[in-house]
Design a protein that fits this description.
Elements lengths: L3 E5 L4 H12 L4 E5 L7 H11 L12 H6 L6 H10 L8 E3 L4 E3 L14
Pfam families: ArsC (PF03960)
Organism: Franzmannia qiaohouensis
InterPro entries: Arsenate_reductase-like (IPR006660), Thioredoxin-like_sf (IPR036249)
């Protein structure tokens, strides 16, 4: 099984719940606190491709800073730049094995990475 990178914000209850799900299964994770170590455009582009989800799923569009930016969510480049500028806009948590990635909404959704492992 490939190493799973867990994009984590310890202040988020869903992120803590997701981490606990993996820990309860003794799954080794590389935890990345993305607020401390933000993703760059290249990393975000790859992550989006592995999510196989619409761009809007990657963004916390209810955040005040997102609303203030007045960005068209269909503009992928500008949206990813906004996440780089303000990492709080990245949806959380996310588990990524380098081939597939899942957003933990609900946290159990990330356990799909364990399927066919």
């Amino acid at each position: 099984m490939a190493a799973i990178i867990y994009y984590h914000n310890p202040r988020c209850s869903k992120s803590r719940q997701g981490l606990a799900l993996f820990e309860a299964r003794n799954i080794e994770l590389k935890v990345r606190r993305y607020l401390d170590t933000p993703l760059d455009i290249t990393e975000l582009t790859g992550l989006l491709a592995r999510l196989q989800s619409p761009l809007a799923s990657l963004v916390r569009t209810n955040e005040t800073s997102w609303k203030a930016m007045n960005i068209d969510i269909g503009d992928q480049q500008r949206t990813l730049e906004a996440i780089v500028e303000d990492p709080r806009l990245l949806q959380r948590p996310i588990a990524d094995d380098g081939q597939r990635a899942f957003i933990g909404r609900p946290p159990e959704a990330m356990l799909a990475l364990l399927d066919n492992a």
